[in-house]
Amino acid sequence: MILWIRARRAFPVLVPGLLVFLAVITVGRQENVLLPGLINSGRNHVQLVHFAPLIVTSTLAHCLAQRLAEAELTTVRRIRLLDVGLVTVTTALAVSASCLVAGITHTDLVYEAGRNTLFLVGLMLIAGGLHPQAATLSPVAWVFAAMFAGYRDYDRPWIWAVTLHPAHIVVTACFCLLVFTAGLVVGGRSPRSS
Fold it and tell me: How many CB atoms lie within 10 A of CB 144?
């Protein structure tokens, strides 16, 4: 177990990543930028907290990519189960932090950061199960596609751009939880995390 924690670099990578995530959602919760739209002729209103889940997905993808393949193939412990536990605990900490900050600051936008973390971690695990190199790229590609092509009009996202939906839409939250669960199933069976 200690070898697995050291090999995955859980503490030196995930702890600072979660602290940076917490700092971004706390300090940058009101910050926004205007980006050009690729579909509409106007500008897209983008919040800084929409980028915060990429910190969690990137650190998780890095930790899951750190393997000792030969040692893990001959081990008695269930490494895939440990990886699923690592992902679940890290995501739960990120979602809890966003709910705590949103509750303290009364900012609904920070709830979106937690919901989007669920979705993007699930997407990362599904993509990583298909191809290991896609684990880091898929959440980043999704966020930028949603930023540049996810709005019909100013502040009206398309249905596929779930990371831009307001926090009060329950169907989006359920969909994000479903994608996260599917990611855990795929990530737990993936030979990438053997």
Answer: 14
Find where tokens 């993007």 sit.
120
Kindly state the tokens that stand for 86.
Answer: 């690592």
Instruction: Identify the CA nearest to 122 among candidates 168, 165, 90.
Output: 90
Angle, vertex CA 68, rays to CA 66 and CA 70, nearest 5:
150
134-149 and 53-65 helices, crossing angle to 10°: 160
| Structure token pair of residue 173 | 């939250």
CB 59 within 8 A of CB 136: no
Local confidence pLDDT in tens for the 194 residues of the chain: 677 777 788 889 999 999 999 999 999 877 777 766 666 556 667 788 889 999 999 999 999 888 776 666 666 667 888 889 999 999 999 999 999 999 999 988 899 999 999 999 999 999 988 888 888 899 999 998 888 877 777 677 888 888 888 888 999 999 999 999 999 999 877 654 43
Name the phi and psi angles at 51, rounded to 5. Answer: -90, -15
Number of Cβ atoms within 10 Å of the Cβ of 2:
6
The residues pairing with 34 across neighbouring beta strands, listed in sequence order, are 45
